[in-house]
Structure formats: C-alpha cells, structure tokens
Amino acid sequence: MEQIFAQYIKEGQMTVSNMVLRNYSKLGLTSDEFILFLQISSCLQSGKDFPDLDEIGHRMGIKNTEVYDLVHQLLAKKLLTLVPVSDASGKQHDRYSFELLYRKLSALLEKQGETKKDINEQMQREQVYNQIEEEFGHPLSPIEMETIDSWLKHDHYSAELISAALREAVLGRAYSLKYMDKVLLNWEKHNIKSAADVEALQSKRRKDQGDDDGQGQAKKRGQANQPHIPLYQWSQRSDSKLKGK
C-alpha cells in the first residue's frame, strides 16, 4: 500500500481548466479528441515536448493509427500546432502546443459574455416597458419605445434609474416621458447614476429642509421668550414729559 502511494506521489498531478472541461464540445472537440488533449497536456506539463503517441494509444486503448488520425484532426481544426523550440544546447525541435485552442476558448467565452449581456439588456428593456405601460395605463407607442431605448443605449441610464424617474412622474401626476426625461437630465447634472444616489439626494434635501424649519421655529421661540416692549408707551411718556416741562 505504501509503495502504491509512493508511486502515486511520484507520478505527479496534471491540471486542466474547468473552462476547457465545460466547453470542449463547443470548441469542436469529440470525446476521443478531448481525451487525447488531456493525454498530450499531461505529457507537456511533465516536461515532454513531443509525447510518445504509441504510449498514448496504449493508455487510451486504441490503435496507433487511430491516435495519429486524432492528432491530424486536431491539427486540421487548428486546435493543435507544432512550434519550433530550442533546448539548452541550442538544438531545435518541434513541440506540441494548444495555444490556438486556448485562443479559441477565449473568443468563445467572450462571445458567451456578450450574448448574456444582450439577453440581460433585453430583459431590462422589457421590464422598463412593462413598468411604464402599467403606470401610464396604455401601451407604448413606437416613438416612446425609441425614447426609452435611447435612454438605455445612448444616455446609458440604468433600468433602476429609469424606474426611479417613473416613480417621480407618478408622484407628480405627470404621466409623460417628457417629464421623466427632465427628471433624468436633472439627476445627470447632479451625477445621480443609481436609485441609491436618488435616495441619498432626497434624504439630504429632507435633512436640509428640516434644519431650515428647525432654525425658523427656534427663531420664533426666541422672539416669543423676549419681553414685549410697548414702544408706543415710551413715546407717549416722552411726549408727556416734554409737555410738562
């Protein structure tokens, strides 16, 4: 048992990205080609630039001719290449490389990211449409849809910010996109980019208004606590004294 464990440690480990594991079929790899990719990758990671294909065929349990056919398929699909490298003595030899496979994987993942982004943007756009139609009480016209699309694509207003502008319009009983556009432009001037920014601005305004009201009430209370001085009596007394003199 100890010998087996020692051999296990000696053989080492190979690493393969989960991205390759999850997307190999989308890269155009068959199951046999993927197993060959793993076998060659294992050899490359252990320092063998040009693996023994006969040995790999034995590991895979297939004929040598089948292994060579699989290699040619990978070369034809431009997933595997042979690149010249130099050893320590300066002697050149070929080396297997999967650089093109990883480049194709990168392009695939980037395209998938763009697709997910497009789907999310479409869902957000539909959500904004539905919210406005529900609050305005009528279906949106093509021009209104174009205006909303312009907010999202050209002005880069987020869906949540447009929803916040819709709430302002409803509270103000101004059921029009023109009113919402004015609200959005005003927020843009104040660098408001999210619903949280809107709430922060409104909280600040409420606080400032409360401070102003508090100062006004304090001023009134201060005036109320001051003694009442009937100025007209002073003037009457002054007149009486003058007349008496």
From TrEMBL:
In this chain the DnaD N-terminal domain maps to 16-114
Domain DnaB/C C-terminal positions: 129-200
Q: Which residues cross the membrane?
A: none
Task: State the Pfam families in the record.
Answer: DnaB_2, DnaD_N
Q: Which SUPFAM superfamilies match?
A: DnaD domain-like (SSF158499)
**Which top-rank group of organisms is this from?**
Bacteria
Region spans: Disordered: 200-245
Q: InterPro entries recorded for this chain?
A: DnaB/C_C, DnaD, DnaD-like_sf, DnaD_N, WH-like_DNA-bd_sf
Which Gene3D superfamilies does the annotation name? DnaD domain-like, Winged helix-like DNA-binding domain superfamily/Winged helix DNA-binding domain
UniProt lists the family membership as follows: Belongs to the DnaB/DnaD family.
Which PANTHER family does the record match to this protein? DNA REPLICATION PROTEIN DNAD (PTHR37293:SF6), PHAGE REPLICATION PROTEIN-RELATED (PTHR37293)
Quote the protein name from its UniProt record.
Initiation of chromosome replication protein
Per the UniProt record, the lineage of the source organism begins with: Bacteria, Bacillati, Bacillota, Bacilli, Lactobacillales
